[in-house]
Amino acid sequence: MDLVKRLASLALFASSLASGQNLSLTIGNSVAGQDYTMKSASFVFRVNGCADLSKAQVTAVAEGIVGGARRSAPLHPVPLQSQAGVYAIPDRSNPDGKWVFVVTANCGNETAGAIVPMNGQGFVRESTQLLSHAPSPSEIEAALKADTPSPAPGH
Amino acid sequence: MADREIAASILESCRCGDRDAFRALYEAYKDKVYSICLYFFHGDAAEAADVTQEVFLKLFAGVAGFRGDAGFSTWLYRLVQNACLDRSRSKAARTRAVEAASDTFATQEDDLIRRQSEQTVQQAVSALPAKFRLPILLRYFEELSYEEMSAALNCSMGTVASRLNRAHKLLAKLLPMRGGRDV
Amino acid sequence: MFSRKPGNRPEDERIVAEGLTRLPVVKAPDAIWNSIEASLRAPKPLETIPPRRTFAWTFAAAAALLVVAGTAVYWRAPHRTRWEVVRTTGAQAPRTETISAGEWLQTDSSSTAEMRIGTIGTVEIEPGTRLRVLTTRPNDNRLSLAHGEISATISAPPKLFFVETKSATAVDLGCQYKMKVDDSGNGLLRVTLGWVSFEWHGRESLVPAGASCRTRAIEGPGTPFFDDAPKSLTAALDDFDFSNGGEAALRTILANARPRDTLTLWHLLSRVAEPLRPLVYDRMISFAPPPTGVTREKAMALDPQTLKMWKDELAWTW
User: Fold this and answer.
1) Prediction ipTM score
2) How many CB atoms lie within 10 A of CB C248?
3) What is the pTM of this model?
4) Per-residue pLDDT tens over the stretch C89-109
5) Do B123 and A80 make contact, defined as CB atoms within 8 angstroms?
6) Does the first or last residue of chain B, that is N or C, have fewer Cβ atoms within 10 Å of its Cβ?
7) How many other β-carbons are positioned within 10 Å of the β-carbon of residue C255?
8) CATH for B3-174, options being 3.60.10.10, 1.10.1740.10, 3.50.50.60, 3.40.50.300
């Protein structure tokens, strides 16, 4: 299933290139931000392909299911001055329930997004979806319903 | 005696070279000056200590020339601003923030929650451009009036108001909503 | 307009005011006044203090936390970080004591301790650990771990906190990590947040969160690997690093590497014999093309700027 998702992401990325879509996101562990103050961030993300980063607009929201109830809460991307166009998500996901962090970036008339599943350890790279559009409600719901790998033993 | 009266008598003694008076002045203001420097320099304790030392040495060196026509706090925080900005320019300070220091120990869990909360606030303050950071710190640590800040920061009250307004807007976006940073 | 009168505050101001009340007023370190005072009078020559008193914490029944002091020579440094041992386990109630440069700290088989490094972090000390505080300067907080296990959580600008062992020095780059060594200096560093630079005589291993690195006496630090790397890879890596595993071990590492293991491969690029570098390079680029500016020629030549550029980009996959 992970392989299918990975292939799907690659296909999306390829099609976005073919259509001339330049804007994309890269998600990484906090060390990729090269900012020690953000070492405990849930993850960092980079906006790629935006000609004028000062005009990039990024938003992030946590979407979750806790005790069967649907929850949403705003997240607070912090721009890192170590690298242009790189932001950290300092918020941590609540251990209760299941959560995905949804990131959207706009630059000019282009939009890119990411759905980043969270577990007790942080973000789940294998299940992260990188999109050439703002994540849709149905994509978010599907991500919330999908199985998320649990933290590895010993953590 | 009110704080301002204390400062006046101590200042007079400082002008006479009274080292004990200077020590008293230092003790009265050291924590706030250090805290403002610490948060200005993104939690860098070494930088904050250096700049704090520099401020008080300049204060002691210049106390003879302090005429008292402006408030002492105004004069002190002008020294703080100049020292912070000079140091910031010379070292090309990076935007960083660290977990806040604490003088007290709670349980580990309480401490972690409190430190996470403080870290979020520090990160938000650190994300501000330098010219907004000091006004915000002076406003909430020293509770300076706009008039006092205008004198300390050597700019018009309109500029103070404008910078605070922008800083508030930026910080309001960066700070978590009521109830903490966990979602 | 410029009044500070209370009343209806804009929502932004209310949020900010509420947030900033969480920022504490931080006590200025005592050392600042010492430095100011020193600047105000003539400089003093080197001072030697008499032998320190011995800290002997004995507990009634179980063996205790023992601190053996040594003679320390103090310079009138501009500042000094205050190190404190703030907590112990065992029969006795927790106590807080300052510990200074030159002093030893030792825990027995049933005691632990927590050491506070000024305002920059803490070190948890496990049972059966012996360490010595080397320097306590704001720009250089350093201890020597003779044997045992510690967990460090540091919140400070990089390169202010160092842990030396017989075979490597851990340089904090903003992190949280565990380190364990035996009397010979053989050990393991495991990083849980941030990065650590693990160094020895010019050999450097960068260890990010989720990764570990072994170290051996005489050899120094090995090659970092992610904790979830295949056992076949880590076994071959041990062989390569410490048993002259050579090309055979390298090929096993490369065959078992996943995209994330470019952490290991990036380090190996500068550690393998030159004829073997193409093997490592080719395996790395099979996972992802190198970033613009990283050429095969420069990578083969181990150009520092090229390697750094590649590492910074690979970090997005680690």
Assistant:
1) 0.81
2) 11
3) 0.56
4) 665 666 778 888 899 998 888
5) no
6) N
7) 12
8) 1.10.1740.10
